[in-house]
Task: structure prediction
Amino acid sequence: MKKLLKNARVIDPLQNLDSKKDILIADGRIADIGGNIDISGAEIIELSGMIVTPGLIDMHVHFREPGYEYKEDIESGSMSAAAGGFTSVACMPNTNPPIDNAALVEYVKSRAASIGKIKLLPIGCVSKGQEGREIAEIGDMASCGAVAFSDDGKPVSDSSLMRKAMVYASAFDKIIIDHCEDSALFEGGQINEGYISTLLGLSGIPACAEEIMVARNILIAKEMGVAVHIAHVSTKGSVELVRRAKSIGVKVTCEATPHHLILTEDAAMGYNTNAKVNPPLRTKEDTEALIEGLKDGTIDAIVTDHAPHHIDEKDVEFDKAAFGIVGLETSLGLILTHVVEKAGVNLSTAIYKMTAGPAAVLGIEGGTLKIGSAADITVIDPNLEWTVDKNKFFSKGRNTPFDGWKLKGKAVMTLMDGKITYTDETMHNYS
Ligand SMILES: NC(=O)N[C@@H](CC(=O)O)C(=O)O
Ligand SMILES: [Zn+2]
Ligand SMILES: [Zn+2]
Result:
């Protein structure tokens, strides 16, 4: 059955498009896009007042399957993603066992395919068992569909292993994504090292714990002429390092999360474990530098680093609580309200960082509504005012510091390959 999306404001940064258009979907693909498409026999979805964008892509999530299904599984994660407007997510391999071989890559892919709500792009481990000693079977995993490699949750501390992995992955046109953290400087840290950590008597994580590893990765990428991607940048210094490296042609890319763009270390006041995340929330100077990095192109992608945990892992003393924030169902609303409206990032730029930006970093298809592309589409109601209610999440995780926040703008319909994977209650006419 053909579908005709009528009268939406269509934003497709890759085509430099921002105007009222109709979109015709046939056989799961974009069949036509134009001023006023008239065709008989298509299901018409009237979208006046709505924004239509390419399906959102999140290149950094944790779905916890296999091994930690009590935190999240591929089904609950997929539903959460679709509800947040996402059509593709790249899943980190810090599961149990870690995704360090082709069979496990196949497993998560087939689980997601059987659920059919999301395109799951598996990220394989850099090192066997994420132990940081021996390089994992990167080639095998790449040929089975791993889109990138990372030991996320942990850094790749051994610089020689990192250098080998970056060069090896480049032979398959794949990148290494590094969680940048100097283990000795991080040691026992709980929140950003600064005023609040002193006030709360919590062990601090200095900015240089991140920046040293960002610099190291840039130096390796430069020397070997290969690419590297920096996960969740949180400091002004990291943004500056990446900006300078890009300006001299180093193949470095990076990403930032809504929580690092919007919140500061103050969120941990009152020992709020829902604001405990790694890397930690930093200072106003850092959030401003991250916003600047989005505006000037230093930051390539907005990611959630969706990191669900069980209530029992958060409802404990601060230093015993797990690091992580769930993000799939709040990301778009937070970005529209606080990064576009408040901080003045251009809407099309923000959409780019959530679609074509990450697609370019990973070298995958998607992130555009060009004719012939898969009909992965997000419908946004830019005027819908709503309140974050963690108890309504599709995710099993409730660990958000944004509960109760009032936001404006929300994904109200998500389509993957032309099939509706999510409809908001405000769009009950469609299913
Ligand atoms: N970000 C986090 O605080 N936690 C992540 C790990 C990670 O992204 O490093 C997790 O897996 O829980
Ligand atoms: Zn990480
Ligand atoms: Zn992560």
Summary: The radius of gyration is 21 Å. The pocket of N-carbamoyl-L-aspartate (ligand 1) is lined by residues 62, 94, 152-153, 179, 277-278, 305, 307, 323-324 (CB under 6 Å). Residues 46 and 200 are 53 Å apart (CA to CA). The longest strand covers residues 377-387.
